Fold this protein.
Amino acid sequence: MTGLRARQKADRHERILEAAAELFRAHGYEAATIEAIAQAAEVSIGTIYNYYRNKGDLLVAIVAMEVHEVLNAGEAVIARPPRSAEKAVDALIGNYIEHSLVYLSKEMWRQAMAISTQQPSSPFGTTYGALDVKLARQTCDLVEKLQSLDLIRADVDATAVGEVIFNNTNMMCMIFVKIEAMTVAALRARLRRQNRAIIEPIRQ
């Protein structure tokens, strides 16, 4: 029975988050209501409030779902990176970018960034910040792996390089979500050019 209850709870969570993501994308974060989300997820409003205090909690849960999938995919890149430092970084960062609009629209990302900036000490803000830290750490892990494969010089500060690559990616993603017309392909092209300038001087 315990296993069944756990599966039912996980199924409710998944239905709620999928319904919230769909309605946020279709109608916008502000316009979507908890009542509409409950109806789409086929759960009671009370059930949603058992798990989430407000729409902000739902939004950060969707962001977390997106980031955790990206992190899992990133681990596969680190385990078997391309035998080129530039291509390896492009594979990891490209995975972050290509996945960015799977669950969230640009409007949803803008909302999430705004809340995390305005309320950095809130549960939303701290969770959002922690996810960024994990992505930054994974980027540093890739640089360390490339050093172990003699693809990047051993005397390079891997953490600093990883942080620079991630921080630049983060800034470019902010520009990407601000400009509705900017495409994923355009973002990836700019990041490839910028990362090439970072990696070229430190390759073995």
Remarks:
- The mean pLDDT is 93.
